[in-house]
Each structure stands twice: as C-alpha cells, then as structure tokens.
Amino acid sequence: VRSFSSSSSNDHYRQSRGGVPRFFSQTLPSSKGGIVRVNGDEFWHMIKVLRLRINDRVELFNGKGDLVEGRIDNIDHAGVDFEALENLKSVSPHSIQCHVFAAFGSLKGGRADWLVEKCTELGASSLTPLLTERSHKIGENRIERLQRVVLASAKQCQRLHEMALKPPIGITKLLSVVGESRLSFVGVAEAAPLFHTLSSLKHDKHGVIIIGPEGDLSEEELKRVVEGGAIPCSLGPHRLRVETAAITLLSALMLWSDS
Question: Across-strand partners of 207?
C-alpha cells in the first residue's frame, strides 16, 4: 500500500476519479453563483479533517436528490461560504423501493451501525426498528447516533437520496404496512428457500422486508405477520444474525427486482 504525506494525500483525494468531496447541507443554492453557509459537523470535516482551503472544489447535497458543485468562497471561525459553480442538479430516486423492518434494538458492539451502513449502501428506502417480545425497546439517543451513520454512509457511497431511519414500530402497526404492500417477506428458518419463492412471483418495484430479533419472532408474532400477508422465506441452512439476515434478503430482493 502506497503511503502519502498529509499534503500529498489531500491532493490525491481531490484529484482522484470522483474525488470531489461531498458534504450535506439542508439548503442548496438554486443556481450558478448562489452562496450558502455551511457550518457544524460538515464545516469541521471540511476544514479540520480534510483541511480544505479557499477555492477548493466541493459538492453539496441535501439527501433529497439534489446536488450542486462549487467552491469554498470564504472561511472563518464559524463556517464556510460555498459558491455554486453550476446550476442545481436533481436526480430521481431509484425505481426500486425496499423498506426494511428489523428487530435490531438489542444488537451490540457496532452491529447496528453495520446494519444501517449496509442498508444505506444497498439502496434501502427506509429502515425501521421493529419492537417485538424479544426486542422490545431501542434508545432515542441510539436512533440519533444511527442517523449520523446514515448520513456518513450516504456520502461514502455517493447516494443522493438519504435512507429514512424511521421511528420504532410494533407488530400491530407493522401489519398495516404489510397489508398495503404487494410483496412482503419475513425471514423464517423452516420456510421454503428464498429463490424458490421468488421464482413464482411477479416483479414489483416496492417490497417490505421483515427480520425478527435474536431468538426470532414468537410463534404468535410470526403467525400474525404471515396471516397479514407476509411471505415466509428461508435464507439458507445456517442460523443468521439479525444484521446478516437483513442484508442477505435486501441484497437478493434489490437484484431480483432490478433484473
């Protein structure tokens, strides 16, 4: 692995293919020449981490499909002024909408972060913590931290539409979602294999993925979900962790829907 000094590393970062650094801003200039203020964590990352300077090129996005390239016009102790060098670009969301409901409230050791990161990279439209008998809570402060993981992951994978991290819901509210969806899947060890199930279904651009907690959904919870319209499917012969099962099912459905 080739090493770089601090200055040469930054130059390489800026000059590499697709290397214009991208930052989040709720407000974007609508046209060339417009200026917006960037502060907070994104300002800190620009100046203290990447050590960007006046006239360096950067991109701003708002997580809603809008992107604009520009330059750093001014830097002071509280923030930077960004000047747009082109008009605002808007990109439509991916045509495939997968919504993940996973009981990850009890995950420890960064496993929830990994789940959120990979759901963002793979293109999930939303991720909702599922509250069940065996995973009945998730802290509000944890949701706030995971929201920062979503943003960092969106920037890293060049995703313009931010994945929605939604408030936790229980089985009763989940049943309403399943009832409104044409395709809903729930991971079940004893069910038919996923690809066998998919081979008999028509493609759809919307889907719901349900993954229970460690120890799985209770018999009553699983019964309610399946009777509500979710299709049980097996993800292989081995017992999977919550995050592994969610990513496996999401990956398969995204590829299947896009084929």
Answer: 98
Give pLDDT, residue 15.
35
In whole angstroms, give the CA distance from residue 210 to residue 232. 9
In the chain, domain spans: 6-90, 97-258
CA-closest candidate to residue 97, choices 208, 202, 191, 23: 208
At position 172, the amino acid (one-letter code) is T
Is CATH 2.40.240.20 the right assignment for the domain spanning 6-90? yes
Contact 90, 65 (CB under 8 A): yes
For strands 126-131 and 164-165, give the pairing: parallel
Quote the radius of gyration of the chain (alpha carbons, Å).
21
End-to-end CA distance of the chain: give it in Å, rounded.
Answer: 37
Give the helix/strand (H/E) hosting 67: strand 66-75
Angstrom distance (rounded) from CA 124 to CA 100? 7
Amino acid identity of residue 242, one-letter, is: V
Cα–Cα distance, 7 to 19 (Å, whole number)? 15
pLDDT tens digits, 78-109: 999 999 999 999 998 877 889 999 999 888 87
Instruction: Name which residue leads in pLDDT, 9 or 53.
Output: 53
How far apart (Å, rounded) are the C-alpha atoms in residues 25 and 168? 26
pLDDT band (50, 70, 90) for residue 12: very low
Give the class (CATH, top level) of 97-258. alpha beta
CB atoms < 10 A from the CB of 173, how many? 14
For 157, the token pair is: 């994978």
Q: How far, in Å, CA of 39 to CA of 87, rounded?
A: 22
